[in-house]
Amino acid sequence: MTEAAGSQAAGAASVRPLVVGVVADVPDAVITEAASLAADLGSPLLFVTVEPLRYSISTLPDGSVLSMPLDPDVPDAQEETFDPDLAQRVRDLVPHAEAAFLARAGDPAIELARLAEERDARAIAVGTRKPGFRASLEEFLAGSIAVSLAHNQARPVIVIPVAHTMEGHDPARRSAPVDDAS
After folding, report:
1. Is 89 helix (H, G, I), strand (E, B) or coil?
2. Which residues contact 148 (CB under 8 A, 6 or more apart)?
3. CATH class for the region spanning 17-165
4. What is the pTM of this model?
5. Contact yes or no for 60/76 (Cβ under 8 A)
6. Which of 58, 65, 107, 137 has its CA at a distance of 20 to 30 angstroms from the CA of residue 49?
7. Ramachandran region of residue 92, left (φ > 0), alpha (ψ -120 to 50) or beta?
């Protein structure tokens, strides 16, 4: 392999994105930690929302999808779009990160894995669910996206915890040592 071909291969490897599954109320910590990880990996970010109450019927050349609702009484096809307010929030939180935004429809774990395969992603990052009874009930009924990803596809899955950061502290990142003598 020539030096030029070697640097092209190295350049191609560095454009493999970190796919980040997000929702409208995603905690800031998921966005900032994903950006930090992507910077460490030398990868661009690809933020993805997945509408679980619709399913994809066609993928457009730009990577967006046309979808239909699961409810058969609502027969309208529509193009899925990434929430512009969420995109602006991401840009505000990580202004220097190379980020793209994409919306999909269907089962979130399946769609994130499919997109990661299509884009030859370095990894898939998702946040944990918010703490609380409602989130526990939703996870019980719908299942954990992170667990489903970890069990059903070959790419690395990075799970970013949000419970501690939502409360304003993260024991794993404490600067002062823990006093066990209390």
Report:
1. helix
2. 109
3. alpha beta
4. 0.74
5. no
6. 137
7. alpha
